[in-house]
Amino acid sequence: MTSEVIRCTECQTEIAPGLLSCPSCARLVHSAELTDLARQAEDAQRNSNWTDALAAWRQAVQYLPPGTRQRDAAEAKVRELSGRVDAGGGKKTEPWWKRASALGPVGIVAALLGKAKFLLLGFTKMGTLLSFLAGLSVYWALWGWKFALCFLLSIYIHEMGHVAALQRFGIPATAPTFIPGFGAFVRLKQHPATDREDARVGLAGPVWGLGAALFALALYAATGNPLWAGVARAGAWLNLFNLIPIWQLDGSRGIRSLNRLQIWMLALLTAAMWMVTEDGMLVLVALVMAFRASTKRESPEPDWTGFIEFAGLIVTLSLLCLIPLPAKQ
Amino acid sequence: MSPLGPANSGSDPNATTTLQFERAEFSGGHSGPACSTCKRPADNEYHHLNGRVFCTSCRAKIEQSIEKLRQSGSLSRAALFGLAAAIAGALIFYAVTAATGYQFGLIAVVVGVLVGKAVRKGSGSIGGRKYQALAMVLTYFSIASTYVPPLTKAFYARAEKQQAAETQAFAQAPAGTPAPRPKVHLGVVPFYAFMFVLALAAPVLGGFRNILGTIILGIGLWEAWKFNRRVDVKFTGPFAVTAAPSA
């Protein structure tokens, strides 16, 4: 945004920093950028690339003054495109494994390296790298370097799940920042446009975190090294903790698109999982879930995709918490 | 960056094809700069705050009312509200620990948020250094009080161990050995007061062994601080509405 006083190119009135249109003649300050963004969005839409179209309209919204027909239309476009991305639109390309397998083993390796490149993307940011090292030094002193490194990487994968979902919905955000003893966070630079978008972004972290825990479990099964059992269980526990629907935890975003009945069902499911696993964490999740079910504003319509995702996470993460911890050596 | 506004159900998603980006089309129409508060036209100059236009008179009125609010802020009321929140925060910690068996660092953040919000409410939502300091002290007291149960447990365990050792030593000692000195018993209130003082020092005394606890405590304190930042209403302007003279 402009920080200096500028004059309207048409009527010469001084435009205060932060104003999006001339208060005198209503000329839009970012007229050129808006025209360009609208063109980019139309081009992307023509290619069925809903993600890029969504990102362009999101950017356009911030240049349009509230209470204008243009802003209302751009916001409506964002909601519509967000729905398309959520329904599986995104970038209309063939799945990566199909494209890769067409090229044979070399293609598969190249595709996997491409995926690994995305996972390493966060480490190209200085803030992420330095906070990761700070976290590593703290956990290293407490638990030794092997566990510290693997545990932090599983947290990093969780955060990259959020980053992937944010990219899919075209929401600008920072790279992950680690807080020793507290996990990590990704700061959104724009609010999600719909509850479903918010829920998908929120649950993407635990879904990727679950993947990391399952990978560690597979390594344990393959190698018998108790380190991997510890990493799998600690990762599962941390992701379960993140499902508490309170404050800025992922669970709080995850229930945003659910209606009251669905949240009650999740509370009951969590209580049932507590009876199976007897993990005290589930008591907390169930209690907070029941509290939110009785206080949260009603979502206009049920979101069964979000419900199934949330329920699946509760069940699988709870079961992973049953992995016996290796004896301290 | 401004967050997206609420959904407008009347908007047509396909209307974007007919959009022009030269001039803003306000739903209520546009007839030159007008004050957001009194709606009177700002003929020669205007002021700006958070994307809205104000006339000189309304700017002065708003600034005066903020100043009045700042002067009416009550530290004692803020302290009372904050203390209640600090006690509630400590109780939440004990309840969660009892229900789950885990001691969550997150509760420190919850305490910071609770106390911070309560102090802000008590202060009349104006914030400032003294309210920030108050919120941080109360948060620290509340979080430090959660160290009392483990300290008490450790104290009793050590006392029992020491007593058992002394009893055993006395039983094995040759006749004529003087009996161990009787222990000095503190009353319940002085004992817990002592434990509380010890708990206040515990986060610092823990050193690196308690590094995670110290970081979490720091986040809790930061939350309390953040909620009581001084609320500054910073208008900009005046800005000229009339056309600038050509060079």
Account of the protein in words:
The complex is a heterodimer of chains A (about 325) and B (about 250). With about 325 residues, chain A is mainly α. Helix content of chain A is about 65%, strand content about 5%. Chain A is globular, with a radius of gyration of 23 Å. By secondary structure, chain B is mainly α. Among the domains of chain B are: about 35-70, no CATH class; about 75-150 and about 190-225, no CATH class. Chain B has helices spanning about 55-70, 75-100, 105-120, 130-145, 150-170, 190-205, 210-225, and strands spanning about 45-50, 50-55, 235-240. In chain B, helix 2 packs parallel to helix 4. Chain B is elongated and about 105 Å long. Classes of the chains: A mainly alpha (about 325), B mainly alpha (about 250). At the A-B interface, strand 2, helix 1, helix 3, helix 6 and helix 12 of A face strand 1, helix 2, helix 3, helix 7 and strand 3 of B.
